[in-house]
């Protein structure tokens, strides 16, 4: 395609030499789907998992209109909107939640394969339930992240799954003949008194990851804040384990939970309902803490991610620490758990204030930082 891929930006997401807005898998998916896209017509194309708009905008660039798009990360959604405006293609694309309206009647679906098989199962089931009977799914990714199990998941919902030749360390799976479709279903788990719910793609699923478990073991018994105007903040909340734990421990207090991932936010909301605390926990999908005022919080808990797509990076944590410094009031506390080899303590001290180690095991470190 003649689309100017190199002009795509990852903003507002972190960027760098190892963090790209388009890769060889995007190009291969478009090439394999070229004939099907030409025949799909306006409103017939759906794109799922488009990182920053490479797939969606390349299609819109050819003249196709009403391209429906779902991206799990709100940063990707905002990058798509910004890139679409830059290219003059905003009217041609629209972002939708992962639900029936996204795929209703679709004839072609382009999919960047998620790393999670449960996420792929949720997506494939939804397509099979609501897309057109003649839908063709072009599901691609980088070879190092693809497994034969992905083919098996697609075969649960499609009659045939063909595999293309590899190119530039990427490959595409082509699925046709939808059957046995279903809506995404949250799995359930329990850890002590804590109920957990998780849709496919939510980090750690319906269980406590070991970092969060360590953080919960050392959270203060009387953290500051907790009022409606100054709630405890569970930053990068995932399935909402920390938010639910704090709300259960402090039955008169309010909690604010936020995550960039649509799957995480949907999971966290169900986790709150399952624990009977939904009336005191607000869960939002947001980039960082953009909805929170400056110097407005007394207590933030954070387990920062260190993956952006497939890339391992510390740039996500840097953005988060900067945001914590903005939102914490003087004397406010950040309780953070992080992979010990990442050595965040100096950065936390420089960005937020005095930082002390609370706990450490073979893999994770818990720190308390007090806003200067």
UniProtKB/TrEMBL annotation:
Asked if ATP-binding is a keyword of the record, the answer is: no
List residues of the RlmG N-terminal domain.
7-175
- Keyword Zinc applies: no
> What domain of life does the native source organism fall in?
Bacteria
Give all residue intervals belonging to the Methyltransferase small domain: 196-367
Q: What is its EC number?
A: 2.1.1.172
According to its UniProt record, this protein's enzyme class is: transferase
A GO MF annotation of the entry reads: 16S rRNA (guanine(1207)-N(2))-methyltransferase activity
Task: State the InterPro entries in the record.
Answer: RlmG_N, RsmC/RlmG, SAM-dependent_MTases_sf, Small_mtfrase_dom
Q: Keywords for this entry?
A: Methyltransferase, Transferase
PANTHER family in the cross-refs: RIBOSOMAL RNA LARGE SUBUNIT METHYLTRANSFERASE G (PTHR47816:SF5), RIBOSOMAL RNA SMALL SUBUNIT METHYLTRANSFERASE C (PTHR47816)
Please give the name of this protein: 16S rRNA (Guanine1207-N2)-methyltransferase
């Amino acid at each position: 395609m003649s689309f100017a891929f190199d002009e795509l930006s990852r903003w507002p997401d972190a960027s760098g030499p190892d963090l790209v807005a388009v890769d060889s898998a995007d190009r291969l998916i478009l090439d394999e789907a070229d004939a099907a896209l030409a025949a799909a017509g306006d409103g017939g194309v759906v794109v799922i998992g488009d990182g920053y708009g490479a797939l969606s905008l390349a299609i819109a660039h050819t003249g196709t209109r009403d391209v429906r798009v779902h991206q799990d990360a709100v940063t990707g959604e905002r990058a798509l909107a910004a890139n679409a405006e830059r290219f003059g293609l905003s009217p041609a694309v629209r972002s939708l939640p992962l639900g029936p309206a996204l795929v209703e009647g679709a004839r072609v679906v382009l999919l960047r394969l998620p790393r999670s098989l449960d996420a792929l199962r949720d997506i494939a089931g939804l397509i099979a339930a609501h897309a057109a009977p003649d839908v063709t799914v072009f599901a691609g990714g980088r070879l190092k992240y693809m497994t034969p199990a992905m083919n098996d998941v697609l075969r649960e919902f499609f009659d045939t799954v063909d595999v293309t030749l590899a190119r530039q360390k990427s490959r595409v799976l082509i699925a046709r003949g939808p059957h046995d479709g279903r809506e995404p279903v949250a799995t359930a788990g329990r850890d002590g008194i804590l109920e957990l719910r998780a849709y496919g793609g939510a980090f750690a699923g319906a269980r406590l990851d070991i970092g969060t478990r360590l953080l919960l073991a050392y959270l203060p018994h009387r953290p500051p804040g907790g009022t409606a105007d100054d709630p405890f903040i569970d930053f990068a909340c995932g399935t909402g384990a920390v938010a639910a734990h704090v709300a259960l421990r402090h039955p008169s207090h309010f909690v604010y939970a936020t995550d960039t991932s649509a799957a995480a936010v949907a999971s966290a909301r169900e986790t709150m309902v399952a624990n009977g605390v939904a009336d005191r926990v607000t869960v939002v999908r947001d980039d960082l803490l953009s909805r929170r005022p400056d110097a407005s919080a007394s207590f933030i808990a954070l387990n920062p991610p260190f993956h952006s797509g497939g890339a391992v990076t510390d740039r996500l944590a840097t953005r988060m620490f900067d945001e914590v410094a903005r939102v914490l009031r003087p004397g406010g506390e950040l309780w953070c758990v992080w992979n010990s080899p990442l050595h965040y303590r100096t950065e936390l001290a420089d960005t937020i204030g005095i930082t002390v180690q609370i706990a450490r095991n073979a893999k994770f470190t818990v720190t308390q930082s007090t806003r200067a």
